[in-house]
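Much of our argument rests on the idea that a fold can be written as discrete symbols. In the encoding step, the backbone of a single protein was reduced to a row of integers, each denoting a local shape. We regard such an encoding as a compact summary of how the chain folds. The record that follows shows the chain in one-letter code together with its fold in token form:
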Amino acid sequence: MSLVFVLALVILAFILLFSVVKIVPQGREFTVERFGKYTKTLKPGISVLTPFVERIGRRMNMMEQVLDVPQQEVITKDNAMVKVDAIVFIQVMDASAAAYRVENLPYAITQLCSTNLRTVVGSMDLDEVLFQRDNINSRLLTVIDAATEPWGVKVNRIEIKDLTPPVDITNAMARQMKAERERRAVITEAEGEKQAAIARAEGAKQSAILQSEGRKEAAFRDAEAREREAEAEAKATAMVSEAIARGDVNAINYFVAQKYVEAFAELARNPTAKTVIVPAEMSGLVGTIAGIGELVGLARDQQRTPSAPPPAPRAPRGGAVPPTA
């Protein structure tokens, strides 16, 4: 009998020990109730309660939590039906307020997000809803965070997870997007053709300028060459004139023979001429060249003996006119 009593005492002691010694894990907080009334909050670690008087009330999760807002149909300002859902990131900051000021905290926050989501989206046009998600998120965050503050909950952020417009609006948007891309492609192609035309015109302009400069330079050089040729011709004519004035008939023969040879050379270089006619006076031309050779020889003799009078030049063969007295 005594053994049974001892075992009962041991079991009662263990039950009492486990009921008064509480270990709170990290990221959790426990509320303590004394005869059903909230007294304090246990932080992470080990704590001892008063036996038979205090007990654990609510076990609150203090870590950030994610709540899924169910998808719902919302009518926008321009009477378009849109399916919207969202996710909410919350964190309990005050365990006692979250435990005793609202019943079923996740459900309450979910319903609060759903109603405010309908309000915000319903006050906007469809285009604003589709392209201004950040604006919707910020407006929802401001409203819901202010509403959950008395509950000891901090709403960190709200994100619109999906926006689904009606099928006909989706098709219209796809056609609009295609037309916009085609318009941009046409504009880009036109800009490319414009730039290409400008480049070609600029190239033609530069080419014309360079060709004009080339013709100008060629004309200048041709004029300079003709000027020098004329100067040389004038000097040669002056020398021949001086020789004629001194009565040197060989100079006249030389001048005539030079022109004769040049004319005959031009006749031979004519590409359309298939036959070259040698004139009968070729023997006279040979005689003239021989006379020029004798004239050169006499000039050399005069340079060797400058005091002796110059002999009379021989008349060249070929009909050259002898000098007059």
